[in-house]
Write a structure and sequence with these properties.
475 residues, alpha/beta, Rossmann fold, Arc Repressor Mutant, subunit A, Structural Genomics Hypothetical 15.5 Kd Protein In mrcA-pckA Intergenic Region, Chain A, eight-stranded mixed β-sheet, five-stranded mixed β-sheet, binds zinc ion
Length: 475
């Protein structure tokens, strides 16, 4: 059996029923001579409109899925039934919407919580100067709907966290073009929470594939996630390292790059010389501040014969700006859209399952199979173990949750059931509760009344679901 059964993980059966029913309807109509060109007569289509797509779907080829049978149904499904959700209407999102709409996807929803900034216009090509300040999702949807007849993009100027399970359940495929790892982890957790298990066996019709694209400067990646079947975002969380900082010894004693000199001024000289008075923090948007750092960095660079410091680079380093590159977005979005097409049509075997792209130096692509993690906190259904000594303080446990490479939580809230009552041990996000529970951090686990085998429920912004940990005391 192939790794990717066809098409069981895709459309819930009722969706296929709808597709088939509408197909029957249109074929009746075309036999009455009311429709042209394969019977899509009332969908705004003109003769030959989908000829290019039909070449992939209505004939066999060396790369088609082993179970693929050419037919007109796939195109029908794609045009009329398949419902996709695009998360993010920025650099990747604009490309994705354009690609999907031109491929024939018509039931598209897009979520983005941002408004358009003038600095987006060089690459987010669905936006114009007159749109600055308006929600990205709305403008992108208007543009695509106006430009591509029959396409119905529904915009949502919201956060992904504003929607519930029932909203996400309506889609066949979710595509994310996000710049936030937290949001990626959250949608990953949401799609996993939609999985149905019957007697421990995954019901394939509950799987909503997630196609995830990401870019950073000249580097990018695209991946296909079949929640519950293949590696999820949390399975490979170690691939997202914490933000890299330059080693302090390099900055202080042997700078080699212009960036090292700017970091030296930012980290060491600014707090020492307090150029704008006591307590004034370096503001990356204040031209006078950047000008000061720029001049000092030039002096530092001159001592070490380093060149290449500019005002622009100075601001980039201070504000940790990674420039967005339009061509990287185009490549990654094209890969993602191709995967959506492959999965939606079931005509081709999807990417298995992770592609990296890099054109920093020449051009490089590589594909590998990211593996599922046996004890993945999101998709494994295995309780998470925490090994601590009874004399460990709650603070140590909290540090582990935030610092461990496989968890990387942001502001975990920890609760436990003690004497039959739910007790919040620590919660950071509400100031009054934080204040009340802060003393717990310096107490030991034993002092808090926790026992060996105790379950701890941990909530965090990185997941829509509470993660259950089991506490194991070490001796
Ligand atoms: Zn996982």
């Amino acid at each position: 059996m192939s790794l990717y059964p066809r098409p069981s993980f895709l459309a819930p059966p009722e969706a296929w029923m709808t597709a088939k029913a509408s197909l029957a309807l249109t074929s009746t109509r075309s036999s009455l001579g009311m429709a042209v060109d394969g019977g899509y007569g009332d969908t705004g289509d003109w003769e030959g409109r989908w000829n290019h797509v039909r070449k992939f779907l209505e004939r066999s080829g060396p790369f088609t899925h082993p179970d693929f049978e050419p037919s007109t149904e796939s195109l029908q499904f794609l045009l009329e039934t398949c419902k996709v959700l695009v998360i993010g209407a920025g650099g990747l999102g604009c490309e994705l919407l354009k690609n999907l709409a031109l491929m024939g996807f018509r039931q598209i929803n897009v979520i983005d919580m941002d408004t358009i900034d003038v600095s987006n216009l060089n690459r987010q090509f669905l936006f114009r100067p007159k749109d600055v300040g308006r929600p990205k999702a709305e403008v992108a949807a208007e543009f695509v709907n106006n430009r591509i007849p029959g396409c119905n993009v529904v915009p949502h100027f919201k956060k992904i966290q504003d929607f519930s399970e029932s909203f996400y359940r309506q889609f066949h495929i979710v595509i994310s073009g996000l710049d936030s790892i937290i949001a990626r982890r959250w949608i990953n957790g949401m799609l996993i929470s939609l999985l149905n298990f019957e007697d421990g066996t995954l019901d394939p019709s509950s799987i909503i594939p997630l196609i995830d694209g990401g870019t950073e400067g000249f580097k990018g990646n695209a991946r296909v996630i079949l929640p519950g079947l293949t590696a999820c975002i949390e399975c490979t969380l170690e691939l997202y390292p914490p933000q890299i900082n330059f080693p302090m010894c390099t900055i202080a004693s042997m700078p080699r790059l212009p960036e090292h000199c700017i970091e030296y001024v930012r980290v060491l000289q600014w707090p020492k010389e307090i150029p704008f008075g006591e307590g004034v923090a370096l503001d990356g948007d204040d031209p006078e501040h950047i000008q000061w750092v720029f001049q000092k960095s030039l002096e530092r660079a001159a001592q070490f014969n380093i060149t290449g410091i500019t005002y622009r680079l100075t601001q980039g380093v201070v504000k940790r700006i990674i420039p967005a590159v339009a061509s990287t977005n185009a490549v990654v979005a094209a890969v993602c859209a191709t995967e959506v097409f492959k999965i939606a049509s079931s005509a081709y075997i999807p990417l298995n399952n992770y592609l990296v792209f890099n054109d920093v130096d020449g051009l490089y692509t590589y594909t590998f199979e990211a593996e599922r993690k046996e004890n993945c906190p999101a998709c494994s259904q295995v309780p998470q173990d925490l090994q601590f000594s009874p004399s460990a303080k709650l603070q140590e446990l909290l540090d582990y949750l935030t610092q461990s490479a496989s968890l990387q939580m942001k502001s975990p809230a920890i609760t436990a059931t003690l004497d039959g009552k739910n007790k919040t041990l620590y919660l950071q996000t509400v100031a009054s509760i934080e204040e009340r529970t802060r003393p717990n951090l310096s107490k030991t686990l034993k002092e808090l009344g926790l026992t060996n085998g105790q379950e701890l429920a941990v909530a965090d912004i990185t997941t829509p679901q509470t993660v259950i940990f089991k506490l194991h005391f070490t001796t």
